[in-house]
Design goal:
The chain has two domains: about 190 residues, D-Maltodextrin-Binding Protein, domain 2; about 90 residues, D-Maltodextrin-Binding Protein, domain 2. The protein has 14 helices and eleven strands. It has a five-stranded mixed β-sheet with strand order 7-6-8-5-9, sandwiched between helices. A four-stranded antiparallel β-sheet has the order 3-10-4-11, sandwiched between helices. A two-stranded parallel ribbon has the order 1-2. It is globular and about 60 Å long.
């Protein structure tokens, strides 16, 4: 380099390739600015939770799930249902991503082609479902239900309970006449004496027992385990395992808290259900608490239910419950 060139204070001329590089960098910067809102929008996920009045209602009230999912860009939409089968219909048409349900509804859903996957299960809770008769009923044993009309929600947890209870008492499912009614309609029919018995779960069980002088003919103890299940769709579970894991963790926290604080739990549930706390005290006292992951043994329990329903021609085809198990078990 000459001394004259070294003292030249003017900027050197950019080569053609250097100009192109500058223009490219500027273009990329502008593109990043333009795309950033779109990328932020793409990162957002929605978690649509179907629920019945219960522990999920308490989770909604606490707002802890929203706080944990917010950093992941997940927003929550809560949708309330009256029973499990309706939730699974919503899952089938893509209206929800998660929900809670009893033992039987997932069997019907899988048999009908719903893309369900089991996410978690509660511990067994046999004392929170039962068969009710009126206080003045002449029916004293399950065997005396032969030829009687029994109200129940078709495809619900009590559907399987009724089948196994009759079997244990020496009766066939065809020995009784099921009357398909929602809990509200069944209560009205029960009160008017239109039906002979009512297969129902909590809190309707305790409410009828306490306010209608109804008598529990039998509960599920020694008959079925009566777990509840948390479910999702296969597609959602595959893409949002982190969201589902956090949701189950938060639900288990409420289970643990509720087990240790039953009086406070009764007060909160009484407000959710709109029924007197003394009624809720009864059902909380006979409840069991705990949430656990889906295991092969739990799926085997569900397979027994599925096989029973197929034998009774309650579902259109034989199913393999393992196909609805989490990917970790496959």
């Amino acid at each position: 380099m000459s001394i004259a060139h070294g003292k030249n204070k003017s900027k050197p001329n950019l080569s053609v390739s250097g100009k192109r590089r500058q223009l490219l960098q500027a273009g990329l910067s502008l593109a990043a600015v333009a795309l950033s809102p779109l990328l932020a929008h793409a990162a957002q996920r929605e978690f649509r939770i179907g629920h019945q009045k219960g522990l999920l209602s308490l989770l909604k009230k606490r707002g802890t799930l929203e706080k944990r999912l917010a950093p992941l860009g997940v927003t929550i939409k809560w949708i309330e249902f009256s029973a499990g089968p309706v939730q699974l219909e919503a899952l089938n048409v893509g209206s929800i991503d998660f929900g809670d349900v009893g033992e039987a509804p997932p069997i019907f859903a899988q048999a009908n082609g719903t893309p369900i996957v089991y996410v978690a299960a509660t511990v067994p809770r046999p004392a929170v479902e039962g068969i009710l008769v009126r206080g003045d009923s002449a029916i004293k044993t399950v065997a005396e239900l032969k030829g009687k009309k029994i109200a129940l929600n078709k495809g619900s947890n009590v559907h399987y309970f009724l089948v196994k209870l009759l079997e244990k008492s020496g009766l066939n499912y065809g020995d009784v006449t099921p009357v398909w009614l929602s809990p509200a309609d069944a209560r009205a029919a029960f009160e008017k004496g239109v039906i002979d018995a009512w297969a129902i779960w909590e809190p309707f069980l305790a409410a009828a027992e306490q306010t209608l002088s109804a008598r529990i003919l039998a509960d599920a103890t020694g008959v079925v385990k009566n777990r509840a299940y948390y479910f999702s769709s296969k597609d959602y579970a595959l893409k949002n395992a982190d969201v589902l894991s956090i949701a189950i963790d938060e639900l288990n926290k409420i289970d643990v808290w509720g087990n240790a604080n039953r009086n406070e739990l009764s007060a909160e549930l009484a407000a959710v259900w709109g029924i007197p706390k003394p009624v809720v005290d009864v059902l909380v006292k006979r409840s069991s608490f705990g949430t656990e992951p889906i295991s092969k043994s739990i799926l085997a329990e569900q397979q027994v239910i599925a096989d029973t329903f197929f034998d009774l021609k309650l579902i259109p085809k034989k199913i393999d419950v393992r196909e609805a198990g989490p990917a970790s078990l496959s």
